[in-house]
Amino acid sequence: MFPDHNYIIAVDGFSSCGKSTFARLIAKELNYVYIDSGAMYRAVALYCIENGLLADGNIRTERLLHSLNNITFRFMLNEQTGLQETWLNGRNVEKEIRSIEVSSIVSKISQIKEVRAKMVKLQREIGKNGGVVMDGRDIGTVVFPTAQMKIFMTAEPDVRALRRYKELLEKGMDVPLAEVSANIRMRDHEDENRKESPLRKAADAIVLDNSHMTIEQQMVWFREFWMIKTRRHEH
To answer: Which residues touch 140 (CB under 8 Å, ≥6 apart)?
Structure first.
């Protein structure tokens, strides 16, 4: 359906905007590799929880930095669901990394300079040959500033909180909507105000506000954007 381009597509934006769902569908449509950069930070957060690297909700940074080389990631396709899943140190942690407990500390993890440096290095290595869709907070600004296509996703906070709440319910996690909403607002504040690679829209990114769009409408939007972009590159 599409011209054959080996692009790097960066999908950045606020938490619970549906970046992963959108990026996965783009990758599937273009037969590209999908990389969930946020899952890598979530996996590090889970590692901290499981290995006693938290003290009163704060990261024991020095101990974490000593452990960084012991943390390995793999993304493996689940052939039954057709979805890519995150493996941490040889174990499938896709469900565990989506918990509210992980969500509550992942922004703190992503603020640690050395952690970001390791993640960025790994992400660049995975995506260096193109043909990838990567979603996160700083893909178009830091990880791949020369990506040929950059999308910045946003949606109203209340819409995002409700989406996240429904997602957690579907996974059997009954968390109060008010708690989910507070977590979303906290994540926004931390993401935008952190010292290391704060959440910013790249100057050459196109904004997709999907507050009132279905995923099908978002894909129609993408196809139009893709056609314009690839046509421009051909001339």
So the answer is: 10, 12, 147, 150, 152, 202, 204, 205
DSSP letter for 137, please: S
Expressed as residue numbers, the domain containing 196 is 8-226
Output the pTM of the full model. 0.80
Question: What is the phi-psi region of residue 35: left when phi exceeds 0, alpha when psi lies from -120 to 50, beta otherwise?
Answer: beta
By the 8 A CB rule, do 10 and 150 touch?
yes
d(CA 212, CA 50): 38
Question: How many domains does the chain divide into?
Answer: 1
Instruction: Compute CA 220 distance to the chain's CA centroid, rounded to the nearest angstrom.
Output: 21
Q: Is residue 235 part of a domain?
A: no
**Is 234 within the bounds of a domain?**
no
Predicted local distance difference test score (pLDDT) of residue 199: 87
Per-residue pLDDT at 235:
53
The rounded distance, in Å, linking the Cα atoms of 12 and 202 is: 9
